[in-house]
Amino acid sequence: MSDNPEIGRSVRTGPFLTNYHDVGAGAPILLLHGSGPGVSAYANWRLVIDRLGSTHRLLAPDFAGFGFTEVPQGTSYHRDLWLGQLVDFLDALGIERISVVGNSFGGSMALALAIHHPDRVDRLILMGAVGVPFELTPGLDAVWGYQPDEDRMRTLMRDTFAYDGALVTDDIVRSRYLASIRPGAQEAFASMFPAPRQRWVDAMAHPEAAIRAITAPTLLVHGRDDKVIPLSTTLTMLDWIDDAQAHIFGRCGHWTQIEKVDPFCRLVADFVTP
Q1: What is the pLDDT of residues 215-267, one digit of tens each?
Q2: Average pLDDT, the chain
C-alpha cells in the first residue's frame, strides 16, 4: 500500500489502469474531478470524501492523463476517450446506475455520461461545469496554459481558483506544484488544451438539443465569483435542463467543494437521497 493518499485502488479500463478511490457504503456517487494542473481525484475531492464517506459510497477515479492513472505512451486525449474510460470504469465495478457529481471539466464528462448513457445516471450534480458554449475566460486560459513554476501555481490557486486566497496554504501550493512536475504529467497536460484554447471550450460543449433531452434530475452549483468558468454556464443549463435547480454561492470562486465544503456536501446528500 502506498503512503501517498492520492493513490487508491486500480482497475483495468480499456487501455488504462485507472487509479480510483472507493470509500464508504450505500448508494454510490461518482465524483469527477476538474482539469487543473497537478489535479487528481483525491486532491479535488478529499474534503468531500472526508465528510460524505461515512454515509455514502464515493467513487473517485483519476481521468486518463491526470493523477496516477497509467496511460499508454502516445495517448491522444479527447472527450470520447474519457467517456469510454468512465463507462469501462462503471462496468469493471459492476455498477449499472449511479449519481454523478462533475466539477468543471468533470461537469462536461458528467453531461456526456447523461447524454450518451442516460440509463447509467440516476441524478446529476454539476459544479462550475464546462459543457455549454462560453467565451474563454482569462482564468481558464491561465489554468490550461500553465507552465510548471511554483509561483505560477501559487498565483493560480490563490488569485484564480479561490475567492479567499488565505484558504490556500504554502503546503497546498507546494503539493500541487510537485504533482504538476511528476514524470510525464506536464507533457500530458500540455497536450490536452494547447493554444488557441477557445476551441477546447467548444470541443467540451454539448449540443443544446442533447442537453435539453437530459431527463435525470439535475442540481447546478456555482460560485458567484468564479473567475474560471462563468456563472452564465450554470444559468444556461438551468434554462436547458427541464428538471433542474441551481444553488449559487456568494463569496465563492471556482472551488465550491473546498470553499463551501460543508453546505455543498449537505446539498449533495439531500439531493441524492430520495
Answers
A1: 999 999 999 999 999 999 999 999 999 999 999 999 999 999 999 999 999 99
A2: 97
pLDDT tens-digit readout, 103-136: 999 999 999 999 999 999 999 999 999 999 999 9
When pLDDT is averaged across residues 148-177 and rounded to a whole number, the result is 97
> Is the dihedral angle over the CA atoms 212, 241, 97, 90 positive or is it negative?
positive
pLDDT at 74 over 80: yes
With CA atoms as reference, report the closest residue to 60 among 40, 80, 38. Answer: 40
Q: How many residues does the chain have?
A: 274
Phi-psi group of 13: left, alpha or beta (phi > 0 → left; psi -120 to 50 → alpha; rest → beta): beta
Residues involved in catalysis: 104, 226, 254
Q: Single out the residue of 252, 274, 106 nearest to residue 264, CA to CA.
A: 252
Distance CA 38, CA 176 (A): 5
What one-character-per-residue DSSP string does 95-126 give? -S-EEEEEETHHHHHHHHHHHH-GGGEEEEEE
pTM of the model: 0.98
DSSP the chain: --S-TT--EEEEETTEEEEEEEE--SSEEEEE----TT--HHHHHHHHHHHHTTTSEEEEEPPTTSTT-B--TTPPP-HHHHHHHHHHHHHHTT-S-EEEEEETHHHHHHHHHHHH-GGGEEEEEEES---S--PPPHHHHHHHT--S-HHHHHHIIIIII-SSGGGS-HHHHHHHHHHHTSTTHHHHHHHHSPSSTHHHHHHT---HHHHHT--S-EEEEEETT-SSS-THHHHHHHHH-SSEEEEEESS--S-HHHHTHHHHHHHHHHHH--
What's the average model confidence in pLDDT over 12-40? Answer: 97
